[in-house]
Amino acid sequence: MRLGGNRRPAPVDKETRSFAKRIEELLADLKAIAVDLIAKVGIEGKSPDQHQHTSDPNETRSDTRINPAAPKPNPSNSKKEPAADKKPERFPRLAEWKPVLEVAGVGIVLVYTFITAMLLCENRKTNKIASDALDQGRIGSERQLRPYVLASKIDIVGNIKSGQRFVGTVEIVNYGQTPAVRVEGCADIALLPNTQPMSDDLRCPKPDNPGTGLTPTGERSIVNIGPSNSAMPFKLNTPGTSISPIEQVLPLFVNGAMRLYVYGDITYFDMINPHTRHTTQFCGRWNFSTLIFEVCEKHNGST
Hints:
By secondary structure, the protein is α+β, with helices and mostly antiparallel strands. The chain has helices at 12-44, 98-145, 246-254; strands spanning 149-157, 167-174, 180-193, 223-225, 234-237, 258-270, 277-287, 292-295, 301-302.
């Protein structure tokens, strides 16, 4: 179950490039037709005298020394032959405008190229806006559907004032809409002076607790927790603890010189982004006057 995915490129860029290519091909054809027409008109406008053969200046002059006798006039050919008809020039001044038309054609091509480039830029901006909106929608959907594993209740089992052994219990609930998988948790008790309050970086279990260095004898559990509307709360228990001598230490807790904390960490994964690891910290401070837990200033957050 995964929202989002690889974004497919929008087909707008390909269509725009095809349209621009067709425009450039049509303009090139129009320019070629105009150039051919101007060249044809220039050739047809030339006079016949310009096509006559001119003598080669390198010819020897020995041929000019022999003067053949002039032919006798033929009375039958005394009548002059009519001169050949000359073709009238069509658009004789059009050839003068050929450079101007070429420059105009190049200008039109540049204008259409500029317009096409502007369209491509606008399409890229539109695609970026759509992509950003898609990413925001995907992130919003993931946040709405992902699991949120939090500590819903912290309590003490046992009588602290009598010096007996007591245990802290924590109820863990998934408040999200999808299951939390590979859930692991740790809970412990910390007895700290008021000059050393709880911090976010306090490790669980507490490093200086007597039982921290011992080899665990229980089972390390990794569980899956369904949504809160379809699953029972999951409980974490702290190691058993006792305060001794209770007669000397209890007044310190009552007047606030010492504080008792139940805290811990929870890690889990979700089914939307299986490789994303989430962490939740929880902490409660025991009030010896009201006999309830109060929320700590630190070590309460989630990612």
